[in-house]
Amino acid sequence: MSQIRVDDLTFYYEGSADSIFEHASFSIDTRWKLGFIGRNGKGKTTFLKLLLGEYEYRGKICADVAFDYFPYQLSGAWEESCAAALLTVWKADCEKWRVVRELELMGTGGEVLQRPYGTLSHGERTKVMLAVLFSGEHDFLLIDEPTNHLDQASRESVKAYLAKKNGFLLVSHDRDLLDACTDHVLVLNRQSIEVQAGNFSSWEENRRRQDTFARMENEKHQKEISHLKRASGRTRQWANANERTKIGYDPVREHDRPTRAYIGAKTKKMEKRRKQMEVRLERELEEKEGLLKDVETAVSLKMFPLEHHKEVLFSVKGYGLGYEGKGQVFDNLNFSLRRGSRIFLNGKNGCGKSSLIRALLGRIHERDGNGVTEDARISHVSADGKNALWESGTLEAASGITVSYVNQDTAFLEGSISEFCRERKLDESLFCSLLRQLGLERRQLSGCLEEFSQGQKKKVLIAASVMTPAHLYIWDEPLNYMDVFSRIQLEELILSAAPTMLIVEHDVRFREKIATQVIEM
User: Fold this and answer.
1) Tally of CB atoms within 10 A around 103
2) N or C, fewer C-beta in 10 Å, the chain?
3) d(CA 13, CA 287)
4) Mind listing the pLDDT tens digit for each residue in 88-139?
5) pLDDT by residue (tens digit) across 411-440?
6) Nearest to residue 30, comparing CAs of 139, 134, 177?
7) What is 53-83 written as a DSSP string?
8) If we measure between CA atoms, which residue out of 134, 99, 133 comes closest to residue 114?
């Protein structure tokens, strides 16, 4: 058992006016199952890179363990190689039998190592990488968002596997995963860093209590400050008025009037009282300072869904999809999306969830021409850009539907916020205000979208969708990389605005809160 100690850590990116870390100090134990929590852009992945020695920094990071990092990087040239050939590329001293043992703990056979890496699903790739990661014996493991793009079954197997391990730092925004797999949390607050025993839920409960206490203390100090300011002002006025009574004083004619010495003494006493009040005021201000520095205020978001004249926006009857040369993806699907409902499509990766969305977007576009956002018109052409789509059964959409679509891919985002808003015909000031409410800092809004983190890019797409009045909101894996605070904001927004939605999302907590129906595919 050993410690990783961080002392007076300061780091900022070249050309940036703000520090990512400034004089940060804390320590963590290498045997902990440590969850890493913080808003997008706060520096979680940056800290992992600092531990790996990839960036220069000021201060000290002291550790007597080696670090290993998930996900491993891989060039496209290795896609055709069998997974077994990659083991020693990723981890020089990796032994195959250890990897097979770890795979079996995740419910996957060792034969997956004999297949070309490019043919493996997202879940299989994640499991192979995790098996290599945990095949060592003495490393402290840095795991960066292992469940993104995984279906529910794969998430459950990864969750069960990590729950039995220790000695890792887990970056994740999946509340269910953090609760199941961690016994301590490292939290990047708004202006401080804290280490706390427990999982996400225990930390969140403690945070709520601390925030409530901080707000109550702040309110108490505000009242006391207002009282002292008023009292000090009144005392100053009395002292000045009393001092002015010296003017025109004639001791012969006004022998019954207080002497100048008496008036001066009284004024001095009032001034002393005023100075005592100012000392108390300064103390109150000092005690108030910093009370709300880490309070996470989830700003309520707004969206304005349109109401369609028809009760059923689209219906699927005996519907199936397939690709030429690849066969059928799914068959005999039946459900209807009614006005005000929020349907989640659930199933394994590759079961056809995104293909169904593309088919629906294509049907709406063919019918109405301009009722779908530009991203949707581009994406529905074909699933992989090569193979044509064939259909069976019926997929019927009501006429005149306006759709706001969020693609699971963010790679196409480029240019400035201003260019993005012009292209989408969005009010730039309102759009930037919405991004600020989702946790982006003002300085980040002037940068290029290519420089945004994956979570920040997701927020750009979500914000654009929220600002777009629509009859139907279709979101394909909207929460990948998005921080837990923003997920909670979106839950509250959707429950408040009650839009009609079709969603693909594997976050169990999110689905449980807002779904009105789940379609298993």
Assistant:
1) 24
2) N
3) 33
4) 999 988 999 999 999 999 989 899 999 999 888 888 999 999 999 999 888 9
5) 899 999 999 999 999 999 999 999 999 988
6) 139
7) T-S--EEEEE-SS-EEEESPP--GGGTTSBG
8) 99
